[in-house]
């Protein structure tokens, strides 16, 4: 598809580590093959659950079935004395009730069972249907190759790689290119949407562990605004913006711990980002931050307000001991 080879994004795709980690360039052309390999890493949704039973093309031979659940033996274990095969969990569960082989009633101890490497190897060599058979994939492979196939399967359901920026489409991998030519977020990008480009650039340069909050209508709103909650040091926090003070504050949610933190307000020019550190949150204060962090002079400087929004990020460094 031509769109895939023509799609030029202003920054590396945020969900493709292989691209963003190897390039500091601000403009990247994603070719079809590049996008295919890097988008594989962006898969966050595979419909087949891990515990869903694979579909064996020729069924499971009796000697590889568990004597308790009658399915294919999972983590196959065999009894030493009588040689009967079970799933590990099935036989350990049965042992809780009675120390005997459930199939032939031979008395057993825990030491009377062992992992069956041979049975496990034979099971892994059985032929299975792809887990996306219900979506149209006709591939078959050995059980040992199934995971590798599923990672590449063109019928696998994946999230749009631009999910972070507002596209919530779930698509088959094989129609990724078609989707990107119609994806509302990709279309905004290809039309040079400045606000979206700013947002992507911020996400790209944000620290790991940084919580990012876009403060809407920052110059016209009168009332306070609160960010969604975020987790740091196992505790919930949020940010609060108080327009009258131009202040941005960290607020503990459901606890009264304090922390040192770094607050950043992002500019479209990364060199103009402003970052302040604070390590002196007093015990008496239920929230702490910087008054005038979003003062009118700063907001009036080009690059801090895009589409009516300013974007701030916070890194919570460490809890303050009392
Ligand atoms: Zn079983
Ligand atoms: Zn037995
Ligand atoms: Zn498949
Ligand atoms: Zn999309």
Automatic annotation (TrEMBL):
Q: Which InterPro entries match?
A: MATH/TRAF_dom, TRAF-like, Znf_RING, Znf_RING/FYVE/PHD, Znf_RING_CS, Znf_SIAH
Q: Which Pfam families match?
A: MATH_2 (PF22486), zf-C3HC4_2 (PF13923)
Q: Name one GO biological process term.
A: protein ubiquitination
Q: Which GO terms describe its molecular function?
A: zinc ion binding
Among SUPFAM superfamilies, the record links this protein to:
RING/U-box, TRAF domain-like
- Keyword line: Cytoplasm, Metal-binding, Zinc, Zinc-finger
Please list the residue ranges annotated as the SIAH-type domain: 125-185
Looking at the record, the residues that make up the MATH domain are 208-316
Q: Look up the record and report any one GO term of the cellular component aspect.
A: cytoplasm
What range does the record give for the signal peptide? none
Q: Which residues form the RING-type domain?
A: 66-105
SMART domains to which the protein is assigned, alphabetical: RING
Q: Where in the cell is it found?
A: Cytoplasm
PANTHER family from the UniProt entry = TNF RECEPTOR ASSOCIATED FACTOR (PTHR10131), TNF RECEPTOR-ASSOCIATED FACTOR 4 (PTHR10131:SF94)
The protein here is known as RING-type E3 ubiquitin transferase
Q: Which organism is it from?
A: Neobodo designis (Flagellated protozoan)
- Organism placement in taxonomy: Eukaryota, Discoba, Euglenozoa, Kinetoplastea, Metakinetoplastina
């Amino acid at each position: 598809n031509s769109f895939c080879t023509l799609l030029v994004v202003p920054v590396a795709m945020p969900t493709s580590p292989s691209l963003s980690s190897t390039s500091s360039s601000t403009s990247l052309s994603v070719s079809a093959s590049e996008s295919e390999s890097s988008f594989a890493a962006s898969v966050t949704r595979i419909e087949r659950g891990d515990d869903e039973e694979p579909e064996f093309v020729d069924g499971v031979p009796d000697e590889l079935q568990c004597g308790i659940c009658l399915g294919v033996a999972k983590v196959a274990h065999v009894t030493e004395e009588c040689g009967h095969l079970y799933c590990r969990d099935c036989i350990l569960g049965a042992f809780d009730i009675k120390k005997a082989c459930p199939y032939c009633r031979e008395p057993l101890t825990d030491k009377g069972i062992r992992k069956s490497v041979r049975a496990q190897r034979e099971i892994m060599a059985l032929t299975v249907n792809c887990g996306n058979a219900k979506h149209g994939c006709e591939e078959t492979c050995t059980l040992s190759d199934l995971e590798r196939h599923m990672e590449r399967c063109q019928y696998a359901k994946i999230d749009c790689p631009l999910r972070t920026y507002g596209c919530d489409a779930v698509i088959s991998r094989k129609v990724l290119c078609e989707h990107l030519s119609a994806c509302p977020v990709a279309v905004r990008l290809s039309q040079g949407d400045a606000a979206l480009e700013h947002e992507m650039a911020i996400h790209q340069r944000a620290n790991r562990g940084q919580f990012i909050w876009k403060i809407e209508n920052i110059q016209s709103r009168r009332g306070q605004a609160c960010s969604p909650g975020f987790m740091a040091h196992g505790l919930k926090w949020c940010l609060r913006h108080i327009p009258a003070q131009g202040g941005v504050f960290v607020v503990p949610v459901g606890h009264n711990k304090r922390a040192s933190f770094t607050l950043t307000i992002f500019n479209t020019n990364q060199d103009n980002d402003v970052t302040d550190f604070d390590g002196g949150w007093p015990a008496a204060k239920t929230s702490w931050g910087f008054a005038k962090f979003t003062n009118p002079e700063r907001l009036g400087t080009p690059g801090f307000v895009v589409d009516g929004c300013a974007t701030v990020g916070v890194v919570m460094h460490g809890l303050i001991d009392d």
